[in-house]
From TrEMBL:
Top-level taxon: Bacteria
Enzyme Commission (EC) number: 1.-.-.-
Designated name of the protein: Putative oxidoreductase YvaA
UniProt-listed Gene3D superfamilies: Dihydrodipicolinate Reductase, domain 2, NAD(P)-binding Rossmann-like Domain
Top-level class of the enzyme under EC nomenclature: oxidoreductase
Record's keyword terms, sorted: Oxidoreductase
Domain Gfo/Idh/MocA-like oxidoreductase N-terminal: 54-122
A family per Pfam: GFO_IDH_MocA
GO terms for MF: nucleotide binding; oxidoreductase activity
Length: 333
């Protein structure tokens, strides 16, 4: 069985990795649809010149693809998700997969009604080989039981390249719904938690008063029966850093700790995907860039076999529910 996909909405660069990695997993993209001429469209065409544009959404929905890749404006993703499922497609959405509880409820209902898969591509885990190695080490017991995570998600603002919706709270969903969904996913995954409670959440606009809809800083705490977590996200990456953000994750275990330096190791080794492991026998930093990205091949397997090897549906729902709850708490008077 050969799988195909269609791209719906090219409003974020994440569609590049989504399309490329599914192609590596053997899933051929048969077309794309997007509104207007978003800024990333030329980059998509350059990377995938063989993929045709479908001028009407109905054409994309009726193309017969097995999977919809959705990277539209965040507030529009849920509606496209439901429509894709109603046309017989499973869905991989860019994060955030939705921006309101109402949207999340609609997706839950669509999954129940259609039996389709809703998978959100939490790329800070699924597109970083160092996260794969960390999962293997945690599963092997290398640091004992994980009892705390500290997730840092700094990003570069790149103001001149951002579209209008980027500065509109109702369109991007808020900084905790958007960016912190990554770190919530990681907390649940590495602690082995199936549920959690948001205990503190805060957002602010510290440096961009001319854009009142932008939240340039956010933080939250969460806890479960397995452990606790702290998350900080922001739009303050300075220009001298050679990439968009120094994303890091620290996993504290009962018998050691792991630090993931995902995108850069300032003052240290070149390249990406650096892992530090310290336990009773080991104290080292290693290159994890060859650890692989199993999420995409696992999702292809799940589409074929109706299984849950890439990510359980319950996990996906829980991540977005917690992100929305954190955002709501942070914005409550």
């Amino acid at each position: 069985m050969s799988l195909t996909c269609v791209a719906l909405g090219l409003d974020h660069r994440h569609i590049y990795g989504m399309t490329e990695n599914m192609a590596k997993a053997g899933v051929r993209c048969v077309g794309y649809w997007t509104l207007g001429e978003p800024a990333i469209l030329p980059g998509f065409v350059k990377r995938f010149p063989e993929i045709p544009r479908l001028n009407q959404l109905e054409d994309a929905l009726n193309c017969g693809a097995d999977l919809a890749l959705i990277s539209a404006i965040p507030a529009d993703r849920a509606d496209l998700t439901v429509q894709a499922m109603q046309h017989g497609m499973d869905v991989m959405s860019d994060k955030p997969g939705c921006t309101s509880f109402e949207q999340l409820d609609h997706i839950r209902q669509a999954v129940s009604d259609t039996g389709r898969i809703w998978s959100v591509n939490f790329s800070e885990r699924f597109e970083t080989p160092v996260s794969t190695l960390a999962s293997e080490l945690v599963d092997s017991g290398a640091i004992g039981k994980v009892v705390q995570t500290i997730g840092l998600g700094p990003h570069r603002l790149n103001r001149l390249t951002r579209p209008e919706w980027f500065f509109q709270r109702d369109r991007y969903g808020g900084i905790l719904t958007d960016i912190a969904s990554h770190q919530i996913d990681q907390f649940l995954h590495y602690t082995g938690s199936t549920s959690a409670e948001i205990t503190n959440a805060f957002v602010a606009n510290y440096a961009n008063p001319a854009d009142p809809g932008l939240q340039d800083f956010g933080e939250l705490n969460l806890r479960s029966a397995q452990g606790t977590g702290y998350i900080r996200v922001d739009w303050f990456t300075p220009d001298a850093l050679p990439n968009w953000g120094d994303g890091r994750l620290t996993l504290l275990g009962t018998e050691g700790y792991i630090e993931l330096r995902k995108y850069v190791d300032v003052g240290g080794a070149a390249g990406t995907d650096h892992l530090i492991l310290v336990n009773g026998e080991t104290c080292k930093k290693q290159d994890a860039s060859d650890a692989g990205l199993p999420y995409f091949s696992r999702l292809a397997h799940d589409i074929k076999h109706r299984s849950e090897t890439a990510m359980t549906q319950a996990h996906c729902f829980t991540v977005m529910d917690l992100a929305l709850r954190a955002q709501e708490m942070a914005e409550s008077p």
